[in-house]
Amino acid sequence: MPPMSLQELGTMARLMSMPIFLAFVGLVVLLSDLIFNRDDERRWPAYLTIAGLIGSLFLWVQSWLVYNLPETDNAFFAKARELLRVEALPQPELLFGGMYDPVGFFKLTLLCNLIIVIVALVVTLIAPGYLERRDLQRGEFYALLLFATVGLILMVGSTHLILTFLALELLSIPLYILAGFARPDLRSEESALKYFLLGSFASAFLLYGIALVYGATGTMNLYEIRAILAGDIQSGAPQILLVNGQNNLMVLGGLTMLLVGVGFKISLVPFHQWTPDVYEGAPTVVTAFMVAGTKVAGFVMLVNILVAFIVLYEWWWPLIAIIAVLTMLVGNIGAIRQRNIKRMLAYSSIAHAGYMLVGLVGLPVFPNIILPTLSLYLGVYALMNLGAFAVLMALEEATDREIVELEDFAGLGRAHPVLALLLGFFLLSLAGFPPTAGYFAKFFLFTGTILSAQRDPSLALQQWLVVAAVVLSVISLFYYARYIIAMFMTAAPAVEDDEEEFEPERPSWMVGTAVAVTAMLVLLIGLFPNPLLALFQ
Amino acid sequence: MQYAQLAWLIPLFPLLAFATIILTPIKHNKMLSSGLAILMMVFSWGLSWAIFFVDQKFLLHEMEARHPYSPAIDWLPTGTTVFQMSLLIDGLALAMLFMVPFVVTMIFIYSTGYHNLGTPNVEPRYSRFFAYVSLFAAGMLTLAISGNMLLFFIAWEIMGLCSYLLIGFWFEKGDEFGRLSPRLSALKAFLTTRVGDVLFFAGLMLLYAQVGTLNIHEALTHENIEAMKEASFGIAGLFAVPVLPMIALLIFGGAVGKSAQFPLHVWLPDAMAGPTPVSAMIHAATMVAAGVFLVARMLPLFEPLHGGSDHLMVVALIGAFTAFYASTIAVAQNDVKGVLAYSTISQLGYMIAALGLGGLVAGVFHMLTHAFFKALLFMASGSVIHGMEHGVHHLHGHGEHDEHKVHAEHGVAAEPKQHAHADDHHGHIDPQNMWNMGGLQKHMPITFWTFMIGGAALAGFPFITAGFWSKDEILGEAFHLWQKGEMMGGLVPLIVFVLLTLTAFLTAFYTGRQLGLTFFGAERTEEAKHAHESPPAMTIPLIVLSIFAILAGFANIPEGITIPGIPGHYLGHMLENVHLAANEEAYHGLPFDWRLALISVAGVGFMALGIFAYRGRASEPLKALGPLWTAMERKWYMDEIYQFLVIRPAVAFSQFLYKVDGSWLIDPMVNNVGKLGRNWGQASAWVDRNLVDGTVNLVGIIANESSEGLKRLQTGRIQNYLVILLGGLLFLAGLFFR
User: From CA A537, how far away is CA A8, in angstroms rounded?
Assistant: First the structure.
């Protein structure tokens, strides 16, 4: 590595500053919990967290300015760059000793960092009220949330399997704790324990896969793995891939293990079974974080791994295709029977993972189409789910009762028309109902797969995946619409005594902001999908 | 030139007023609605006069005769060509711009008083009235400046619609005092003019097919006319129809409908069922002039040069006949507005006859002067009716105990008169019947004097009224052509001249009769005694218009008469280029001819006769004419003829069609098809229920059951999950190591 100038070093520190800064904020929040009086309103840690996350948003803007190529600059970017005195890097470099790529393929990492910060921000906005209502206001919640966020960010940018594993654990361990945060609530504890046991199991698979890959290739750096595998094919004397005319079991076994480990985190079938139980038992805000944040980061991790093994495309795409079909099937059919919205959203998140896998199938053929649309889909997916959870929180605040079961939704359309409309909007968007953002995200994603299937006759089977995805997403309308019907077309249950009739309260500003921000973003993406997509490219 | 560029704004102002009143809550405020309408109209008026006075010189003389100012924008693409929306501001349009917005503004102001703004009796649909008349004004102004026949036709139709809406404005009224109800009158007007409109539109299509454009100054070039003269088209390969007369007569059909020429004149008298300002504006001053304007615009099609074509003679004869025919009816009318209605038809006949003799300037001149004095007459008659209604209210509006006494008085007063129309109706008298009036001179002095001026103008009182100069010019045109022996050796001009002269005498006579019955002598009824002068909002427009009814005549005074400061043939020079385009020869104003002026002098005698014969008289002296009088009173049985020739056959035919449709052919067919469809539907419903639904339900059951199965897998036990996880791993590994 050539010696760096001081300025380059400074730039580099800036580029890594997001996870570093967030980890620092996490520590501060942890300490502040000791300083501030435990008996007063427990919102100070939340405010600190919000401030930190907003600060990291600025850091993100800065790194965007660094990595967005000056040629594609518009006047606005140029002005911002001038104001912040940021210079664009002509060629993005790996940081952290080559273990961290802040940009990723087609800016996937960079964009997902933004999504992750927004997820953390929205969760922090809706958390305090929820925690207070359940008397769970402990300061470490926010610190754990921030550590998990740092884990997500590192996981997304990691180009080294060791860093990937570390990031995964940095994410998982706080999540285990957060899932059980509602102790002594039995369901929460059960959720935490299940998540922990199965998660450790999955981590073991992941580690085993890392070991096998390292054994076969001699490196854990994903870029190097890709280069070695590609060189192996090109050299004409395959050393690693084929042993005695057979596939190298070490490479393929390692890849399989890696897929199992990642598949567990993003709840692909058949590694999904923890999902409904954990999502249902965990505190709702934690569920929101897992649904939106973990899945986004996990998917980017999957993309990074698949890109490293791109030469094995012909081996892995049928595998991904089968998993995609299974995932969509189980996710959608499983959701039909659910009468608990958290479980329903758990299954729906499984189904969405299936759709995204459909998009990933064509990855090496049209990476320039699929990766930007995948980042759009991830963003929209995160926003829709967060929006739905935020509205749920707002409804809880407004009605002063827990709203999770289908019966709880009866008559909400009359009592809280605006919130009910918004929830309906998010649910329709999740179902991919035109012209919502969910529709356009699906549309663009599937377009990539269709193009890939048309380009290569041997991949023609892929278009049937899209057919399956479309048919199954029609089924999905059933279970999403059920909540809308419950809200607008069922009468509220009779109130036993008059005391329960109270003036509907307005949700607090934090939850209101969360709802408004998510709704605005989903609406904007739904109305103007193209400019946004152009930004991603 | 700076104002002419804004000409497109002229119709937009009233259109804006219409849209605003109809679409916004302004309509709930009567004062604001009429204020807005008047303001917009004043803008339009100001702009029009600015163009007229400031830009006239440029528009007329600095632009070439064959290339008048005609800005155009593309409008409707039709295959390879494009319909344009264009304006045409030549001398003719300028003449209209001088007259229309001014008269309309006066009428708007008058309407506020007529509809009793600011009193408890205010018209309930007041705002709607102003919206409609604004739309009408927009239509008329569009028509005046449009340079494209399609736009012209649209404006034409807008006016037709407004006419319909406004005639039927009091649609809830029944048929009072033997007059057709407003509802039916509106229908009659709309349907009758529609006949003309269809002919007009057919003519336009034919014209477009021939020349490929509807832009007036491009379509009516000399070359196009010559080409069309040669052309003919066959109907079913049998008859060769010459194109040019066909187009000209079809378009003239439109004018016949709109300008109420014989035989499509029947709608106009009944159109008086609308509010009087509407009668003044639409059915006297402007809309009916649109037909005349149309003929003037299309005059090149009629080939007025070289002794005139056959179809031009048709125009002349129809005009002259209408003029005479309508004036005979007007003599026998008892309704104050009815007289004016027939006199309008008669005067329109004058204009059409003038145009039919190729007298573009004379026809347009009479159209302008007529607009001023006829609007004045109508508004004055409205004022009379208003005053009479006031009398009626005064006498009958005091409750039960008064009613009796009034009836007694009324009975005494009504005893001498023998007129059926003057009879009581619901205990009230008809405030429009002249036999109920008399002596109003004392009670309504302003109305009297303005009516007098208008009447004098209509009768053609020599030298000082506008009507004299314009009528004189038309008579002079006919006389001149007769002398020259043109148009069938002078026969046509002679017929026209004779008929128009007789009409002039009749006109003077019935005007005198009307004045005598209405204003002179003693009051015939108690109501007339209690009539009193209308509010200033009504009388001021009357005064203003009466000034114009006198001065407008000096717009085209002939040579031989010199009045200091007034150029001779002012209007003639304004229309010079239009005249040149139509006639291919420069306009030479006719010199003043004393022989013709004598006709008008004789007319004064007839007018005086009318006044003195009817002042204070209680019954109709001309009843002595017997059946002739009855025929005149019954309008030469024209309505009955229509009933017999048109309406009854039409109704019988439609009943026949109804039978075909309802009981013989169509309905049974439809019903059987329906039955067939129902049976088919039942069959397919059976298939649907038993086969398709079964399949769908099966899918649903499968989904549900598999969901149930999944639920069973979801045990909640970690051990089971781990087993499944391992199974999945093995499954994947199996796929890899296949």
Answer: 26
Q: Using DSSP, state whether A237 is helix, strand or coil.
A: coil
CB contact under 8 A, A260 and B732: yes
| Residues of chain A numbered 235-274 and touching chain B (CB < 8 Å) | 247, 249, 252-253, 255-257, 259-260, 264, 269-271, 273-274
For the ranges A91-95, B111-115, B298-302, B437-441, the lowest mean pLDDT is seen at A91-95
Which pair of tokens denotes residue A428?
């329709």
pLDDT reported for residue B413: 41
Subunit contact A271:B713, Cβ cutoff 8 A: no
Q: What is the DSSP string of B611-678?
A: HHHHTT--S-GGGGGTHHHHHHHTGGGHHHHHIIIIIHHHHHHHHHHHHIIIIISHHHHHHHHHHHHH
Residue A157 touches chain B, beta carbons under 8 Å: no
Which helix (DSSP H) or strand (DSSP E) does residue A369 occupy? helix A367-399
B721:A274 CB<8 A: yes
Q: Do B706 and A333 lie within an 8 Å CB cutoff?
A: yes
- Over residues B240-276, the pLDDT tens digits come to 778 888 888 899 999 998 888 888 888 888 888 888 8
Residue B1 binned pLDDT confidence (cut-offs 50, 70, 90) = low
| A317 near B CB under 8 A | no
CA distance A401 to A412: 12
ipTM exceeding 0.85, yes/no: no
Report the C-alpha gap between B422 and B410 in whole angstroms.
12
Q: What is the mean pLDDT of residues B209-215?
A: 84
Among the partner residues A198, A249, A330, nearest to B718 by beta-carbon distance: A198
Residues of B with CB under 8 A from a CB of A: 703-704, 706-708, 710-711, 713-714, 716, 718, 720-722, 724-725, 727-729, 731-733, 735-737
Asked whether the whole model's pTM tops 0.90, one would answer: no
CA distance B696 to chain A (A): 13
Q: What is the mean pLDDT of each run of 10 residues along chain A (537 residues)?
A: 63 76 90 71 81 90 76 68 71 74 84 93 91 83 93 92 93 93 87 90 92 87 87 71 66 89 90 89 92 93 91 85 91 86 91 92 84 89 94 88 86 86 92 85 86 82 87 86 88 60 70 91 82 64
B136 near B162, Cβ under 8 Å?
yes
Coil vs helix vs strand at B370: helix
Distance CA A52, CA A94 (A): 25
Please list the alpha-helical segments (H only) found in B332-444.
Answer: 336-356, 360-396, 400-414, 440-443
Measured between CA atoms, the residue of chain B closest to residue A194 is: B718
Instruction: Write the DSSP assignment of A94-142 as a string of letters.
Output: -BTTTTB-SS-GGGHHHHHHHHHHHHHHHHHHHHHHHHHHTT---THHH
For residue A253, the chain B residues in CB contact (below 8 A) are 733, 736
Reference A247, options B738, B730, B727; nearest CA is B738
Cβ B713–A273 below 8 Å, yes or no? yes
Distance (Å) from the alpha carbon of B724 to chain A's nearest alpha carbon: 7
Interface with chain B: mutation pick from A255, A337, A340, A472, highest number of B CBs within 10 Å:
A337
Q: How far is the first Cα of chain A from the last one, in angstroms, to the nearest whole number?
A: 30
DSSP string, B198-225: HHHHHHHHHHHHHHS--BHHHHT-HHHH
Say if the Cβ atoms of B725 and A336 lie within 8 Å.
Answer: no
Cβ-based neighbours of A299, under 8 Å, separated by 6 or more:
A266, A353, A356, A374, A378
Q: Looking at beta carbons, which residues of chain A come within 8 Å of B711?
A: 334, 337
**Residue A476: alpha-carbon gap to chain centroid:** 20
Mean pLDDT rounded to a whole number for chain B: 82
Q: Is B717 left (phi over 0), alpha (psi -120 to 50) or beta?
A: beta
